[in-house]
């Protein structure tokens, strides 16, 4: 029986019998999926010090407790409604927002919600073996915090599917548990969510760059005319911020330790001799996850994006900061690559909405890389990290099928094949990373050699707090 204690919620679940029944039907399948596809080996005997959202106000955030992972209370929360909220962009600009799904936009909305929903369990699946290689209990706990919140984001999308899309929505909710990351026959929808994440450098880069795509997509969905979608994604954004914190500080701590080890080893390349992660390897992983996450924004010119915008389904990040919200006659100056050379053309702004969001995303990433470089600078290290050019390693959009180096210089397929291991992680890099992560670190306050401890612990607990307890 689903209750407010079992599923904390602010949608008055107990008064909506139809929804309650639908979720009761789905919940055991979700738990089975979590056991089968969630963190492997940490389901039965471990107690994790996690934060559970029990309400949307700031006090609802301070709720920390030890829980066994399958007993985490996945809740359903919508940010508080904004009084007299109006549609903020597109052809219906200024009209009252929708509290039900308009029939003519049902398919488009369902598709957006399913695509968003699909990424959440996918990321849990991608990360399910990492616990066995964790650099500390602090990091292990952060991994599980991210995982349970991705599970909650899945609940958020399933709530919308069950509430507003009837039979189709229920079917889609089942399929969200059926597709599997990396599975050849039934893969996850978007490419980056089928890539393996089998070491912690991948994990930190994923939470830095791919969760940041989560941020940009959720920001644009939070502008939606469908008010329940807007309110759900607005609340999800607060959790997303913690995931990016995990990624950004994870890489910062690796960089800090690399700088320390460089003092012993001399040059960055030699850091491997003392068990650290060299800066070129960090750069390659940055290149990989940044380029995969650029792909997640879709094609540069997209009639889907134009139609989402026109219909008020998906806006721009921070729509209110733009001067004009109907955007019927505006143009976006875009660089194309035609006949082997760059060419600038004007594209109707509505068709360029994926690119507009990608611009926002790239600048948000660049600020993060700047913060990383300050660590190198402080340590007196001359190397710097940088974002590769947008054209580098793309599989979606107009640059897919062409080859560019990280500076955006075009090259032949043969040359790319010869040099790709200079720019992207190769088998030897993976092997090295797995070798230094082979032994998990489970002693409180102890950290793997390749990463520095965090500046402070979680919820004012000390760094050597037992963030994950074993009952065995
Ligand atoms: N991989 O017009 P186009 C997150 C497809 S992350 C494979 O260019 P459109 C999270 C596309 O579906 C945020 N296929 O793009 C992070 C279309 O297919 P059809 C997730 C792709 O439609 C970490 C075709 O290519 N949220 O939350 O504008 C952990 C041409 O489409 C890809 C969302 O994505 C790709 N990368 O799509 C946990 C928001 N890109 O129609 C969670 C919802 C495009 O030819 N989704 N295609 O069959 C959307 O807003 C849009 O679907 C997209 C762009 C942004 C994905």
Name the helicity range: 40-55%
Could you tell me which ligands this complex binds, including any ions or cofactors?
benzoyl coenzyme A
* Fraction of residues in β-strands: 5-15%
pLDDT below 50 for ≥5 consecutive residues: which ranges? none
Q: What is the approximate shape? A: globular
Mean of residue pLDDT values: 95
| Oligomeric assembly | single chain
Indicate the structural class.
Answer: mainly alpha
String of helices and strands: HEEHHHHHHHEEHEEHHE
Distance between the termini: 30 Å
> What composes the largest sheet?
3 strands, antiparallel
Structure explained in plain terms:
The chain has 472 residues and is mainly alpha-helical. The protein is 46% helix and 7% strand. It is built from 11 helices and 7 strands. The protein has helices at residues 17-37, 106-126, 137-164, 166-178, 200-221, 227-265, 279-295, 303-310, 353-378, 413-423, 427-436; strands at 46-51, 64-67, 331-338, 341-348, 403-404, 410-411, 468-470. The strands form 3 sheets. It has a 3-stranded antiparallel beta sheet with strand order 2-1-7. A two-stranded antiparallel ribbon has the order 3-4. Strand 3 (331-338) and strand 4 form a beta hairpin. Helix 5 crosses helix 9 (353-378). The radius of gyration is 23 Å and the shape is globular. Benzoyl coenzyme A binds at residues 112, 115-116, 119-120, 123, 150, 190-191, 210-211, 213-214, 217, 295-299, 302, 304-305, 314, 354, 396.
